[in-house]
Give the backbone structure.
Amino acid sequence: MSDARETVLARIRSALGSAPVVPAIPRGYRRAGELPPGAPALLEQLAGRLLDYKATVVETSPARLAADLARILRETMPEGGRLIVPPALPAAWSVPAAVVDDGTLDATALDGFAGVLTACAAAVAETGTIALDGGPDQGRRAITLVPDRHFCVVRADQVVQTVPDLLSRLTPTSPLTLISGPSATSDIELDRVEGVHGPRTLVVLLVGPEPTTEPTGR
């Protein structure tokens, strides 16, 4: 095997010569979207994509987030089910009964949790994809892959239009996880099976701007 490898590499070196020329990389593809992060059209598009992927979308606002979060947890979590959270969620999201992950639980222990609540790093509207980067409000990858339900809060200013927009916000060396709906796969007969590679239930709380109230006049 080693001899074959050296033979292949020697032929490559011979073909390249002593001063190989690196061709220019074409960059004619779309590098950014036309809409700013958090534009209403992007929030609508992201919500539509997520619904197509069989996720649940709860459209909320900063003022309503805590109440909507408490409601959706009551409606979605099983009775007695435990929730795990990363170490640095915003205080306003606090769930008194939640267990804060300290990094010591293995996959077997994490499987005993019914759900996980996290923030996100960014989201892209055109593909309906949410990105996690292991930040303190998202936690390590394991807590978002093992529990059966993932509750994810996405702020309007985190929603961008295109994949290049998304990648420009992420650090390549971070432990990135890209989520497009609940985990699902299909066999050759197109029988859909959910929960194979991650949570079978994805609930996205999409936090838009506060609704404006038009002043009343005479």
Q: What stands out?
A: The CA atoms of residues 11 and 17 lie 10 Å apart. The mean pLDDT is 90.
